[in-house]
Amino acid sequence: MERQTVLEAAVSIIIVVGFIGVLAVLTTTYSTDGGIGPAGGYALVASLVGFIIVMSGAGLTLTRMDTEDVTSEDDTDGSDEGSSDPSA
């Protein structure tokens, strides 16, 4: 597997495991009489929104890192493709 693929998988797994841990803590903290009260419901929804934001941010960051790697590899290949200098 490529380094970038392994990094993406590892980051995703860490975030998902963290989210499951947050859900477990919230469930045990807010469970009353076999159910979850309104405060627990709000906490679960907030954790879901937080998970979506964190996962989106991680995906955006990883995509930008991958794009920068490709751009730097293209710049160092020594070719003059795309050069605006007509004498090249």
Automatic annotation (TrEMBL):
<feature type="compositionally biased region" description="Acidic residues">
    <location>
        <begin position="68"/>
        <end position="88"/>
    </location>
</feature>
<feature type="transmembrane region" description="Helical">
    <location>
        <begin position="42"/>
        <end position="62"/>
    </location>
</feature>
<feature type="transmembrane region" description="Helical">
    <location>
        <begin position="7"/>
        <end position="30"/>
    </location>
</feature>
<keyword id="KW-0812">Transmembrane</keyword>
<keyword id="KW-1133">Transmembrane helix</keyword>
<feature type="region of interest" description="Disordered">
    <location>
        <begin position="66"/>
        <end position="88"/>
    </location>
</feature>
<dbReference type="Pfam" id="PF24284">
    <property type="entry name" value="DUF7472"/>
</dbReference>
<keyword id="KW-0472">Membrane</keyword>
<dbReference type="InterPro" id="IPR055895">
    <property type="entry name" value="DUF7472"/>
</dbReference>
<protein>
    <submittedName>
        <fullName>Uncharacterized protein</fullName>
    </submittedName>
</protein>
